[in-house]
Amino acid sequence: MTIADTAKSKATQEGQTRNEEIFQTAAELMVQRGYAGTSMGDLAKAVGMTKAGLYHHISSKQDMLLQILLHAMEELESTVIEPAKRIADPEERLREMIRLHVRGLFDHGLETALLFPERRHLEPAQQQVVGQRIQSYRGLIRETLRELADEGKLQDLDINITSSHILQTIAGIARWYRKDAGVTEAQLVEQTVNFNLFAILKVS
Amino acid sequence: MTIADTAKSKATQEGQTRNEEIFQTAAELMVQRGYAGTSMGDLAKAVGMTKAGLYHHISSKQDMLLQILLHAMEELESTVIEPAKRIADPEERLREMIRLHVRGLFDHGLETALLFPERRHLEPAQQQVVGQRIQSYRGLIRETLRELADEGKLQDLDINITSSHILQTIAGIARWYRKDAGVTEAQLVEQTVNFNLFAILKVS
DNA sequence: ACGCACCTACCGATCGGTCGGTAGCCTTAC
DNA sequence: GTAAGGCTACCGACCGATCGGTAGGTGCGT
User: Which residue is nearest to nucleotide C4 (CA to C1')?
Assistant: First the structure.
């Protein structure tokens, strides 16, 4: 072991740090029951510890929410925003953003984004940090819509309102989708892309 | 006063029963902070009473949530579902449903519908009652989409998924809309109707 | 005199969080 | 090889505050 070996190497059965297990479990519980509705005792039990043991890993419930939100935002940026930014054509970019975002709901825990409204439980300064990063995503969608409008491809729609509608159809999936119903992941991606592009693109 | 006079006549400044004031204030608080995040002490203070005084009017927090959800559902049925059912043409019916629903977000407190996921805090039997009535609304949308498909007017879209997308664009408005921004109510109604109809209607 | 609307004072339970410990592993010294 | 020391990961027991809810009373309009 050298100074270079800074990695925390303790892993659980699935190659997850105990810390990661805690944050992920917390995110799942909070998505189901909300921030206020999830007690630290419940969370401790869910990861197989006592509350005191849990507090060895985290500093407070509030800080845990902040970490969860920041991590979700980073995941969104690296798996959706950055790849999309590299696409020049606005129509193809929007198509890819929706596709990547919906896929991310399954592959990377992007459903955690449902917790963003819970940022009201954070300190104002922290709320602002999280809020700004969300706005930058909305900004990318608006910019893409504006480029489409410049090309004459956009329907007669308000860009601000439309960007919200698009985001709601995507984020909304995590609210209503239950995998027991007869809807496959691939279907959901395709249908959501089509729904939104049918809505905004002028017929050529 | 006769037996026929069953109306509770105590009214506050705006012609509201104390009971109505409590339920409406509770609904507003819960939409902002969630069911678990809203304490009965907060609610009591918001209506200018003590907690004990509040409990003179209601039986329990849980029952209050049930009443709020049932009332929201009745409002939705009388102002959106019933009027829409009387329209024969499916395209016009869908258009009117969206228009009435979005308008209702402002005129009748239809934003209360954001509390429907909170029905998980109710007893299973009550959850089912509320859940069924929501499904009947979704059923009407699906039926309307199916009629459009029969007429050959529907895009190549899955009816189940599309009905969810439509509902999310409408309900989602109550999540992101803040009246301070430069968006008028009329704009919002028009844009939401257009967005969804652009999405689902085949170009003729 | 009666009941409605409301109060003060309180209940047991649960909340987020902390305290002082301890079992087991890893390193270092001899 | 092994004992000492330290560190990580946890635990039982507990804290003050707040939770949903209640008991018993007061004042007021009819």
Answer: B56
Among the partner-chain residues A156, A195, A200, the one whose CB lies closest to the CB of B165 is A195
Amino acid at A19: N
Domains and CATH numbers, chain A: 12-58 (1.10.10.60), 60-200 (1.10.357.10)
What is the distance between the alpha carbons of residues A154 and A142, in angstroms, rounded to a whole number?
12
Sort out which chain A residues have CB atoms less than 8 A from B195's CB and list them.
157, 161-162, 165, 199-200
ipTM greater than 0.90 = no
Closest Cα of chain B to A196: distance in Å? 6
| CA angle centred on A192, ends B92 and B100, rounded to 5° | 30
CB < 7 A to strand C: residues 42-101, chain B: 48-53, 56-57
Q: Are B174 and B185 in contact (CB under 8 A)?
A: no
Q: Going residue by residue through chain B (204 aa), what tens digit of pLDDT does each one get?
A: 322 222 333 333 455 788 899 999 999 999 999 999 999 999 999 999 999 999 999 999 999 999 999 999 999 999 999 999 999 999 999 999 999 999 999 998 888 999 999 999 999 999 999 999 999 999 999 999 999 999 999 999 999 999 999 999 999 999 999 887 889 999 999 999 999 999 999 987
Cα atoms in the Cβ-side hemisphere of radius 13 Å centred on B13: 1
Contact A164 B155 (CB under 8 A): no
Neighbours of A25 (CB within 10 A): 16
Residue found under tokens 């409008």? A149
Give the residue on A whose Cα is nearest the Cα of B196.
Answer: A199
Q: How far is CA A98 from CA A90, B4, B126, B170, B176, in A?
A: 12, 59, 36, 19, 19
